[in-house]
User: Fold this.
Amino acid sequence: MRRWLPRSLGARTALVLILGLALVQAAGLTIHALDRVGLQRIVQAREISARTFVAWRTALLAPSDRRATLLADLDLPVGLSVEVDEHPLVRGPMPPPSPQVVRMFRVDLLALGPLRMRPREIRVAGHGTDGFVASLRLPDGEWLNLRVAPPPPRPWHSESFLLAFLAMTLAAALLIVWAVARLMRPVRVLAEAAERLGRDVNAPPLDEGGPSEVATAARAFNTMAERIRRFVADRTQMLAAIGHDLRTPITRLRLRAEFLEDEEQRRKMLADLDEMEAMIAATLAFARDDAAAEPATPLDLAALCRTVLDEAADAHPEAAERIAYGGPERLTVRARPVALKRAIANLVRNALAYGGSARIALSPPEDGTVRLTVEDEGPGIPDCELENVFAPFRRLETSRNRETGGAGLGLPIARNILRAHGGDVVLRNRRGGRGLSVLVTLPA
Assistant:
């Protein structure tokens, strides 16, 4: 059943309200129809009873040779027929009319009235579920035979009633859809604001107007966003201070290392200091995420990928033959150029460093998403580590040791940048153990 339910909260709310309205309308129509049926039956019974008495008086007072003519001229209602015959219509054992018919048509009234107006004999039998037949003997021995078979009642007397009902229901459904859309708008705005905050921590605050519940939620969201911004700013400031304070002793150590007489020790010490500076710079870059403040502009993603590969080929001429691009000549997306180039460059750099090759495959937009794949021909990564490598400073000793360089921040930085664009990056091993495949998704 869940497959047939709408996915959005607004659509589900509107569906429930419309179904509830339909059920209430159906119940109201049923009650109206039952009341109308009961009323029509009462009216029919009263009219037939009155006309029956008129037909009896006419037959009683008219000369025997004119009874048939006078009875034929009577304006009888639908469901009542009278005739004069020498023989009664009710003969032999016949079922009596039901108590409901007796109560409705007051069959007992046939035996009431002045003595001279009463029939000499009355025979009554049931006829169908809602009717009866009666034979009344006249003074001269003839019989007045009555057939009462009222037509079925019409719950909808007016032909335009159902059309008016459908029009009213449609108008109510449209009103429900409009009202639910208006009520769900703050929820949609809140979701969009949360999406913007996930991409840009400095996104503008929400408007705190509207109903009290919406205003309360907006204030809570703005407070949360402000706390997140303050936390990020405090963390960045702390790391910047640590980096600044560490550079001073590193500089002093570098100067002292220059005065060492042992050439081998001086070389090792300077290499360690270079590595420390590189780690500090990478850590500060990861913490600051300066690219988040860069404005998004339309850019040619295909050209950007080719540029990254060309620069990688220049930096690694020995691997130039194993660097390739496959995809369209042009593909425009809206992104932050410097940040996106840094993310793709990190992925290509990892592929060359740990896989010995880098091939970018770019696919045209599909379902509002652009897919970019970076493949290498290295040993791959154990399946249990495919997600762990995105943790800061996480490196796999079997293939990603210090000899290859880096501080274990390339993949985390790339993921932060891509998620800030509304996309993501995941790793998966290629079939047959032929290397690693990095799948990047971006909004088209």
